[in-house]
Amino acid sequence: MEEINEYIKYIKSSNNPLSSNVFLIKGVKNNYIFDVGANKVSREIIKDIDSKIIIISHFHTDHMDNMKYFSNEKLYIGDYTYKILGYGNVVNNILEINDGINLKIVHIPNSHAKGSLCLIINDLYLLIGDSLEGNRYGLNVSLLYDEIKLLKSLKYEYILTSHNDEILKKEEVIKYLELCYSKKEKNKPYIGYDVLS
Ligand SMILES: [Zn+2]
């Protein structure tokens, strides 16, 4: 288990099976889990945590396959994840939880997956899932515009993604996304990987 600070830890992502980072956030009353991953290591650790509240970033298998073992826990998800799981509390905008720590579950527009959620912890860390990544066409211009606008408006300093150990700075990520946005071409809904690289 990796430690970010005294209240945020995470189980590292894996490639075989493909499984996202699983973030564990300690509140006073509850333990919050951001994505449950898809590997056995994550499953075993999550199993032993009491008073769980689960938040799923998006509906891809590597982020939520282990939900089949934890379907009785309190769950927050986006609308597309709800379409697949069929249960859980849908967050459409922002949901704030105060439990010794301050959590904000925020719906984030992005090209990677519809109905994605991110999580802000104590106005300091933003867990963004895969929302910085595109889909097979690249980055959708209007979703990227909305995503940049949202990421600028929220209060936090660092961004943690789901498949590596990097801690990114807010300004650097916004600068990178604005650079991507500047490469949009007239009448093209997507900024393709050919122009992004
Ligand atoms: Zn994904």
Report the C-alpha radius of gyration, rounded. 16 Å
Strand order of the largest sheet: 1-2-5-6-7-8-9
Weakly predicted, low-confidence segments: none
Task: Note the total helix count.
Answer: 6
In helices, the fraction of residues equals 10-25%
**Overall mean confidence score, pLDDT:** 97
Q: Tally of extended strands?
A: 17
The succession of helices and strands, N to C, reads EEEEEEHEHEHEEEEEEHEEHEH
Distance between the termini: 33 Å
Q: Catalogue the ligands.
A: zinc ion
Into how many domains do the coordinates divide?
Answer: 1
- The first-level CATH class name: Alpha Beta
Q: Which range does the strand content fall in?
A: 25-35%
Which structural category fits the helices and strands? alpha+beta
Could you walk me through the main structural features you see in this protein, from its secondary elements to its overall organization?
With about 200 residues, the chain is of the alpha+beta class. It has one domain (about 1-190): Metallo-beta-lactamase, Chain A (4-Layer Sandwich). The protein contains 6 helices and 17 strands. It has helices at about 40-45, 60-65, 80-85, 140-155, 170-180, 195; strands at about 1-5, 10, 15, 20, 20-25, 30-35, 50-55, 75, 90, 95-100, 100-105, 115-120, 125-130, 140, 160, 165-170, 190. Strands 1-2-5-6-7-8-9 form a 7-stranded mixed sheet. A 6-stranded mixed sheet has the order 10-11-12-13-15-16. Strand 12 and strand 13 (about 125-130) form a beta hairpin. Helix 4 (about 140-155) runs antiparallel to helix 5. It is globular and about 50 Å long. The structure holds zinc ion.
